[in-house]
Amino acid sequence: MSKLNLTKRDFAALAIVLAALVALLLPGLSHLRELSRRATCANNLRQLGGAFLSFHTTKKELPPTALWPNRNNVLTLWAPEGERRDTTIAPHANWTILLLPYLGQDQLYAEFKAGVPISDPKNEKLRTTELAVMSCPSDAYHRTNNNYAMVLANGAVSIFARGNYAINMGVSELLGAGGPVGYPHPDGIRYAVEGNVARLWGNGVAGFNKTFSFKDFRNGLATTVLVDEIRSGLLPVDGRGVWAFGAMGACATHAHGLYGDCFGPNPTRQQADDTYGSIRLHQLMTWSEISEAGMTCCDHQDYYHEAGARSMHPGGVQLLTADGATHFARDDINLNLWHLIHSRETPRKVDVRGIDASSSGEDFIAADEDDVFSKPEWTNAVVIDPEVTEDVVTNAVGMKLKRIPTGEYMMGAPSKPYGVEYPDENPPHRVRITKPLFMDIYEVTQEEYEKVVGENPSPQPADRSGEIRTRGEADEKSVSAQRQAVIERKRIRERRSIEESLYDAQLPANSEEEQSIQEKLFREESFVQEVGREKSIESEASGKRKAVLAAAVQKAKADYERASQDAKRFPVVMVSWYDAANFCRKLSELPEEKAAGRRYRLPTEAEWEYACRGGDLSPEDDDPALKLRHDIPLKQVGVATPNAFGLYDMSENVAEWCSDWYLREYYALSPSDDPQGPSLGVMRVTRGSTFVFRGNRCQYMQHAHEPWQKSWQLGFRVACEYVRSQ
User: Fold this and answer.
1) Which residues make Cβ contacts (< 8 Å) with residue 213, sequence separation at least 6?
2) Distance from the CA of 210 to the CA of which of 343, 348, 493, 593 falls in 20 to 30 A?
3) How does DSSP assign 51-117, residue by residue?
4) pTM over 0.70
5) 257-294 per-position pLDDT tens digit
């Protein structure tokens, strides 16, 4: 056997070849390792899905996000950091703890002390235990030397093990349902107090002290997310990714849909997560370090609000839907779809498909003609403008319509808001309104809506006259009966005394005993007269009481009728986008309107802002005189001063539906001439301020809501087009 005579040059060449082979193989090996880690993660989610199913089968409901035993405790979600960390107000069990017996963790569940907060020393063994089923092997920050260290108000530190899976609390805003100040929001968080228990929930599958069942998922189990993947916090001060702590970001995702700045998988906006410890994290790490780590969060507040789904799997996150299936949602998933699958309130008629697909196509949803994704032809119709010379038109319902001339303006924020860069969704861009149209001078009133649709959905004044009459008559009957009983008892006592004296009345004539009885008989006769007088007085008093009652009933009736009459001129509210669009359709179908050639629709967003500005092409920034005021009541339409186009209440009273679908980046894609909005979507644009807030004059920042939602701060006005008769 001959020996290989290799020179140094040969060894160098061999080393180069081997290095090249390793370089070629390493990516493949790395990819295989990631596939294995992803498979382990998916298996964890399937185990959780089985536990959820067993829990639901046993309890007939899903577990809550967490149990906060005292109603004041839930309010600490918005409290300063130190207050929330007090052991007396920390949460007790969360959904993961409640699932432990269904995950084969009976011994660990036995360690749980339900009578004390989870941060209490008695629960240390439970909360510091590493749970394999709650650990994604791809998360490099899920390790014991990075456990969460919660500093309590008394200075003590509670250590928590990390976790990578969060229950879906939904995509509702934490700001209250119906709309917080300056932000009319029909899909905000809900809050209810029952005794000493406060419940807080959104449109997800669980809430604080609030549970749901599978029957509550309107679109079905296969299209409703139960659990999102999340990441462990970057440092021990970062409260994200904690399996035993019941809060947003720790064990729950929340408000990471189309609202706000925490949208989609692995959100990248600078202020994306609003969670525990974010301020302290920014004190220990730079913006660039946090951003490069893919864990952006707010630097100026750390109350619980937005908390997004995150993972270290390249390109997306894993999800568990309520049917027990796992999905890999790519980072570029269509955000409309992402929003829909995180709401249990998505209507059944919405055909949701493509959870594992990207946003590359628009066929992720198959919509039938009656679906929320269809765009009816009678909205945004092409204008055929005949020679209509009137400046103001009154239609068959009595609505006054004002001609809006053509023109152009810079749509969007007039200057950089708060001194920062323009939001992606609001860059200024030139828009031309090339077709004249008429617009409702006022917001549609309750009276007009009822005339056209036949009903009024707005909250109405209560007619208390019947209640007052019923209660008054009951009180009168009770008082009269009590008074009669008193009189009768007095008469019976006197009569009984006389009868007892007459018993065995074998008495000598003119004896003292006989005189005594005669006196008693005389007193009885006097008493009878006294009883008669008392009955007469009672009858007179009863008559006066009945007269007072009749007057109170009459006044209540008059107040109700006056309030009802006044309400007719208030803007109609509690109307969905569908309701507003249906009003336009019905109004267009009235014979008088057809004969006049008038067709109605909701204004486009571009038309709305143009009309709101009243021809002012370079509007001022926020008007300090119109800033936050809590004493502004909802008013009848037309009370305030009109704008330059003669339109009322476009910056106050109620926000208004527009015809456009909502797309974050639409302003950057919008055509210059008569933009109609995106062709598909989930939410519809709303514009304008409300009666609880007046900020900048035309609210340059968009809002958007699901078209099936309603709010007591949300109404609409109509646009009108003239169409030539054929």
Assistant:
1) 56, 60, 61, 62
2) 348
3) HHHHHHHHHSSPPPSB---SHHHHGGGGS-HHHHT-TTTS---BHHHHHGGGGT-HHHHHT--TTS-
4) yes
5) 887 788 899 998 888 888 888 889 999 999 999 999 99
